[in-house]
Amino acid sequence: MPKGSRKGVKEYENDGRPPELTFASFLTGSLTSQSSQVLDESCSEDSGASTATRGAVGFSGETSEKTLGFFVQRTKKGKLPISYENRAKGKKVTVIANVSGDANILLQELKKKIGAGGVVRGETVELQGDHQVQVEKFLLNHKSCLK
Fold first, then answer.
1. Which is it for strands 124-128 and 92-96: parallel, antiparallel or unpaired?
2. Please, is 53 exposed, middle or buried when counting C-beta atoms within 10 Å of its C-beta (0-12, 13-18, 19+)?
3. Ranges of Polar residues compositional bias (predicted)?
C-alpha cells in the first residue's frame, strides 16, 4: 500500500490536547498553570491514567532522580575503572570493570550514547573502540550509579 493512501483515518489538529496549548506556549511555559488545570480536569475521570499522563507531559515540575539498576564501583584510589585494551587483529576495546547490578542496562545506555557495539562479560562491560572519554563523561553525569 502506498504511503499516502490512508483511507478512513481522520487526523485531528489537536489530537486530544487542549486547544490553547501550542508548541510555542509549551516551550515558553506561559500556559503551564492553565494547561495543568485542564489536564487535571480531563484526567480526573480515569485516576490510573492521570499520573501517567501528567508524568509523560511533564507539567508536574517534579524532577525525581531514578536509579538505573547498575552501579560502578570506583578503584581503591578513587578512579573510575575504565581501561583500554588492544585485542587480536588490531581490535581496540574499552573495558569498564567493577559493574554490579544489571550490567546489560549500562551496556544498552552506552551503546545508544556512543553508537558502538559491546558485550557484558561477568562484572565487566566491553565496548568496541577507544571510548574512554565518552564513558567517563557518561558515568560522571550519572553520579547516582557510582559507588
1. antiparallel
2. middle
3. 37-53
Rounded to whole angstroms, how far apart are CA atoms 134 and 104?
18
Cell of 96: 569498564
Rounded Cα distance between 52 and 90, Å, is: 49
Please, are residues 84 and 95 in contact by the beta-carbon 8 Å criterion?
A: yes
Tell me the residue ranges of DSSP E strands in the chain. 70-72, 82-86, 92-96, 99-101, 118-121, 124-128
Q: What percent of the chain has pLDDT over 90?
A: 48
For residue 52, the model assigns a pLDDT of 42
Beta partners for residue 60, in sequence order: none
Instruction: Please give the grid coordinates belonging to residue 15.
Output: 489530537
